[in-house]
Each structure stands twice: as structure tokens, then as C-alpha cells.
Amino acid sequence: MTSTTDTAATQVQVLNDLPARVLTRPELRDLVAAIAADPAAWEPHVAYDDEHRHYVCLHRDANVDVWVLCWTPSNDTGWHDHDVSSGAVAVAHGEVIEHNLVIGSAALEIRVPAGQAFSFGTDHIHRMTGAAEGSVSIHAYSPPLWRMGQYAISTTGVLRRTSVSYADELRPIDEPFPDDQERLRDAQIQN
Ligand SMILES: [Fe+2]
């Protein structure tokens, strides 16, 4: 099982017709919806792994990157943002869940079944998980992903951001951040 950032060899017409500029959110949404509706574009790249989410880069140029992501219910990106990129997701097969962080209450969960798509701007923070075995989604980002923010909540509820590369697999941060009581104690010592 491999996940790769090497661009897969593909002949998808909609990828040959991209404007030579940063795409708008509606354009990103139309792009991922068109690819999701074309199984020949993504089926050759489908594979599943409960431990390490399987994904393949379909296209990458100076303005946009496009990915095929494969999901089992065990797969979880953890909380993250996309830095300076806007993005769109279309579910091609199965179902995924988009989680939106709500301060002070449970996260908002939006189930996205096959045939549906959504887009988001640079201000968006979310987490994605698989909802059904054998799910596939198409993602596009513009400008193309380079850095992303991966979030974790410390033992005392403080939200922390870590900058990661687009080449890193997004997953919940396993290593707990230093306990905030320890941080406060350190601050008092320095004072
Ligand atoms: Fe994301």
C-alpha cells in the first residue's frame, strides 16, 4: 500500500482545460465534481489501508493540485487547515464525514455521500473521516497545497497548530502537546 505525491499519469480532459491562473471556489467545485463523475479518472488509483490513508496526486501545476483520496472508517485526517489554499471535495464513491470545530460544544458533523461536493476558503479548519468502507473522494486546491496547519487540543483544552508539508499524511497528532500546567510553571520560573 502506498501513498504518493508523485503525479499519476492520467488522461482526464477536464485537467487539460484548466485556466492558467488560481481557480475560484466554484471552479474548484466544478473540477472535483467532474472528475468524481468520471470513474475512469480515479478507479485505477483506488486502494485502501486502515492505518495509512491511501491517496494519489492526479495533477499538480503552478495553480492547482488534484488528489484521489481513499477512505475506510478508520481513516482520520485530524483537525487541519490548508494555509493559503482554497479547496473543494467531491465524493465519488461511498461517504465521508466533514467535521467542523465548534468552540465549547461538540463538533458539527456533515455527512457527504457520493455525488455531493463542497468547497472552502483559506479560513476553513476541518477534519475528515471515512464513513463507509471503500469510499473515494476527489480533492482540489488552489493555489496548490504547500504547507498546512495540523491542530491538536492539549490536555487542558488549548488548541495548538503545527505547520506540516503537503507531502505529509494528515492524521491526528499522536504526541500530546506539553501539558499547559507545565508551560505555565516554566513561565513562572522565567519570571
Ligand atoms: Fe482538508
Automatic annotation (TrEMBL):
The record's listing under Pfam families reads: CDO_I (PF05995)
User: Which residues are listed as membrane-spanning?
Assistant: none
Region of interest (Disordered), ranges: 171-191
Domain of life the protein comes from:
Bacteria
Asked if the record carries the keyword Ligase, the reply is no
What keywords is this UniProt entry annotated with? Answer: Dioxygenase, Iron, Metal-binding, Oxidoreductase
Q: Which PANTHER family match?
A: CYSTEINE DIOXYGENASE, CYSTEINE DIOXYGENASE TYPE 1
Q: Which family does it belong to?
A: Belongs to the cysteine dioxygenase family.
Quote the protein name from its UniProt record: Cysteine dioxygenase
* Species per Swiss-Prot/TrEMBL record: Kineosporia mesophila
